[in-house]
Design goal:
The chain is an alpha/beta fold and 385 residues long. The chain contains 14 helices and seven strands. Strands 3-4-5-7-6 form a five-stranded mixed sheet. Strands 1-2 form a two-stranded antiparallel ribbon. The longest helix is centred in the first third of the chain and has 31 residues. It is elongated. The chain starts with a helix and ends with a helix.
Length: 385
């Protein structure tokens, strides 16, 4: 191999690793990612799956070899991709932050390492499927897999999601108590098994004709769609049907359908039902909005149950576009009117989420606070004055 061809071979890996190194250094100065913990590992999971896939497509350029050969030939580069951010964050956390390192290291191995391997598997699959459009195909697959949870977030009563490239996301309401449990480890193991099998079967000696490639692709799509529907059954997602099964009881009032945990006392639910009907009438009068559809109230027994089934352990939340809100039974009085206002606002909201234009958080929360007209026991006009 002459110098020119050698230079061409190492050009992309060197440039991509250099850019990756700069990005990792920058993350050490950003809040939350400047510590070896969940947030840093989750971002690295996305970055490493992308970089691992692109490098694999590049290494396979003009070649048809087994996956093990690619891993064996380029293991030093893959190791650098994995170890550079781990070592830098480990040193930064140890020397300048002083936070515990054991949980952070565990997050990095459970979230980030499988994502790097999945990126490699996807890159190998894309290159074997189409040598001409391998980079484009990998990028499309990467974006589809990464963004698929948006469908769960939109249609399901949940904020959290499990994703092969990210591992686990606790929801857009920040919770500090993010832990690694057996369910997450099982999910990551299933991810590696599924994408590893895809990479192995897509090898040039197995799927080597156009017909086989077509059948293979549609089989993968079918299995993926089936798993998406079965995710609630495996407790990796929360559908409305799963909520009804897990919580166990339902009740109906004039304007509400209530799904609540069977351990909650009937008297508490009666009080809850009375108050929400009262607030419904009050908000309708204040906003002059005629709300005809029934609103679904999901009532959890405590924050732990809400965290497991919904994803926001420390906050009561509404999904205006679904006409649903989610509260704990022991603290609903402080948030009930506020969350109901969000649902009423869906009648005048825009965007697919039926909220303020451009997802303006000041307008979304400001409208609810104005109708609620109470903060910490005080009138909001008094506080503003």
């Amino acid at each position: 191999m002459n110098f020119k061809s050698l230079s061409k071979k190492i050009k992309f890996p060197v440039i991509s690793l250099a850019g990756f190194f700069v990005l990792v250094i920058w993350l050490q100065f950003v809040p939350l990612t400047n510590v070896l913990a969940y947030e840093y590992s989750a971002i690295n999971a996305i970055l490493q799956s992308l970089l691992g896939g692109l490098l694999t497509v590049y290494f396979l350029s003009g070649r048809q070899v087994k996956l093990l050969s690619i891993l064996r030939e380029n293991y030093k580069i893959y190791l650098l991709v994995f170890l550079i951010p781990l070592i830098i964050s480990f040193a930064n956390t140890l020397l300048f932050v002083g936070c515990p390192l054991d949980t952070g290291i565990l997050f990095f191995f459970v979230l980030t390492l499988p994502s790097l391997m999945i990126g490699i598997f996807l890159g190998y699959f894309a290159r074997n499927l189409s040598s001409r459009f391998a980079f484009l195909l990998f990028t499309i697959l990467f974006l589809i897999i990464l963004l698929l949870p948006l469908i769960e977030f939109y249609f399901n009563p949940q904020l959290y999601f499990y994703n092969p490239l990210l591992g686990y996301f606790p929801g857009n309401i920040y919770d500090e108590n993010i832990t690694i449990d057996l369910k997450l480890i099982i999910y990551r193991s299933l991810n590696l098994l599924f994408f590893g099998l895809i990479a192995f079967i897509s090898g040039p000696k197995i799927v080597n004709t156009r017909v086989l490639k077509t059948v293979f692709v549609f089989s993968i799509i079918g299995i993926s769609v089936l798993f998406s529907f079965l995710k609630p059954e495996f407790t990796f997602a929360t559908s409305l049907a799963r909520l009804e099964f897990e919580l166990g009881k339902t009740a109906e009032t004039k304007n509400f359908r209530i799904i609540f945990d069977s351990s909650i006392e009937e008297q508490k639910i009666e009080n809850f039902a009375f108050q929400q009907e009262y607030y419904f009438t009050e908000i309708a009068s204040q906003t002059v909005i005629n709300f005809e559809e029934k609103i679904t109230a999901i009532v959890f027994r405590d924050s732990k149950q809400k965290g497991e089934l919904f994803g926001a352990e420390k906050a009561d939340v509404a999904k205006p576009w679904l006409h649903q809100f989610y509260v704990e039974i022991d603290n609903f009085e402080s948030s009930l009117k506020h969350e109901l206002t969000h649902i009423f606002a869906s009648k005048i909201g825009t965007t697919p989420f039926k909220v303020a234009d451009n997802l303006n958080p000041a307008m979304i929360e400001g409208y609810a606070m104005a109708i609620e007209n109470e903060y910490d026991g005080k009138d909001i006009h008094h506080l503003a004055a």
